[in-house]
Amino acid sequence: MVTAGSRGDGMRRANLALVLRTVHREGSRSRAELTEATGLNRSTIADLVGELQRAGLVVERASEAQGRVGRPSPIVEPDPRVIAVAVNPEVDALDIAAIALDGSIVARERLDQSTLLTPERTAELVGIRLDVWRRRPLADSRLIGVGVAVPGPVRASDGLVREAPHLGWTDAALAGLMTDATGLPTHVANDAALGAVAEHLFGAARGVHDVVYLNGGASGIGGAVIVGGMPLGGAGGYAGEFGQNRPGIADPDDRRAPEGVLEDEVSRSLLLRALGIDAADDAALAAALVRSTDPAVRAETDRQRRILATALANAANVMNPAVIVLGGFLAILGELDLAGLDSAVRAQTIPACAEGLRLAAAELGENRLLVGAAEAVFEAALFPAR
User: Fold this and answer.
1) Is 2 domain-assigned?
2) 345 and 219 in one domain?
3) Each residue's pLDDT tens digit, 100-153
4) Residue 32 belongs to what domain range?
5) How far is CA 36 from CA 29, 59, 114, 362, in A?
6) Where's the HTH marR-type domain (predicted)?
7) In terms of Cα–Cα distance, which of 108, 105, 1 is closest to 55?
8) Which helix (H) or strand (E) holds 342?
9) How many Å from the N-terminal Cα to the C-terminal Cα in the chain?
């Protein structure tokens, strides 16, 4: 969508994308600030901003600066009418949001599910909801695509969902189904990979080049790695499946699943069982854990934190990240005592890898996966390959 007319000028396309990406990811900037941030001259910035305005991707407003000599530089900001639809199917709910290019969430709904979603039903529900939103609140919006964050490995080359085991999906061509239901181009990726991108660009790992991200959801634990500022995809796009690693468990009494993987031992469902709750979103789960005085609940959270600490130390030793970000119920576990979890991780991390290591909860909270899904749409539709 970022173009340079018919001239085929690759440098101009790259400069258009640079300006648009700057205001999208860094926030509104004056023309003078864009000149400084991009290294382009003032006349080039004015020309590029004008083209982006004509394309309906940015808007300008007068500067609020007062009392300065000379004419204040106009403020350039992303056009909030440009919208990506973000989707996250899970075993207990379908989350849908409309996210604007300026980062605002224009609409968001959580559709609780009593039975497992199929790929077909997921696409159908999104299509139905979007038909309603197109009348209001998206009547004046420009929808450019759908991004789907799926809890399972997704093939990078074509977005085929290879397996979403907790949903019961295998080799699901979800992108085509979603495009048929919405009329929009669709981009499908692993939920944790998208959450990592969101936290890297806008959240707890903003400005950090080397990141390990672990996401805890109703379907288990996923993960992703960012190295040198770039997502680590692996040969097929499946890198980061930390939840499938065999956990190190020092005390045999801590084991709940013989031969189980990390997500069998560190589990949202086990937390709910300890609390005696059938279902809860992350906010309700966090509140219930904080309120509980039941020794059995404390014992379960302590057990899970011990195992999680070892898994995080293993990740730190292998990847040497600057920050490890926890999302979903893992963030809830961590924030029960983040300093204590940090100490437990450092105790099992080699000193060199522990230097400068920071443990953080995802700052985008329940929106992290949806923000990442929207970013996949914006990146594909608006920014040319680097």
Assistant:
1) no
2) yes
3) 999 999 999 999 999 999 999 999 999 999 999 999 999 999 999 999 999 999
4) 10-78
5) 10, 19, 53, 31
6) 18-68
7) 1
8) helix 338-346
9) 15
